[in-house]
Write a structure and sequence with these properties.
Blueprint: E1 2-5, H1 27-34, H2 37-47, E2 56-65, E3 68-75, E4 80-85, E5 92-97, H3 98-105, H4 120-123
Antiparallel strand pairs: 1-5, 2-3, 3-4, 4-5
């Protein structure tokens, strides 16, 4: 698992995720949700650079637990990951490969709307 900071800029999109003063209900997540899918893929591609992800081809919001948001991303390297966007002033992230989550907990990473089964976020609720 790797911890990253989303405050850094990324290709073509300027996002300020740090918050002055008190943190209000995961400000980083609020900004990510307002982005277009194209901008979210660019943001997560930048975030995933140390994972040798290549380019993020899909993002999927799983939900939130205790203020932390869980996103799934699929990459051109053929792997999928969970990105936890923490409810802190920096918009810190934790990244874990979906294969690792499945091996440890036996739970698939994500499901599209309408698909059955548990999500990673539901394991924390």
């Amino acid at each position: 698992m790797r911890v990253n900071n989303l405050v850094h800029g990324f290709v073509g999109v300027v996002v300020v995720l740090s918050v002055c003063g008190s943190v209000q209900a995961n400000e980083a997540q609020k900004r990510i949700q307002k982005m277009s899918e194209k901008d979210r893929r660019a943001l997560f591609t930048f975030t995933m650079k140390d994972e040798k992800c290549g380019t993020v081809t899909r993002t999927f919001y799983q939900g939130a637990v205790s203020g932390d948001a869980f996103w799934n991303v699929t990459c051109t390297n053929g792997r999928s990951y969970v990105v936890e966007v923490m409810d802190d002033a920096e918009g810190s992230t934790k990244i874990l490969e979906c294969d690792v989550i499945k091996a440890v907990g036996g739970t698939p990473c994500s499901h599209y709307s309408g698909a059955g089964g548990d999500s990673v976020a539901s394991k924390y609720s």
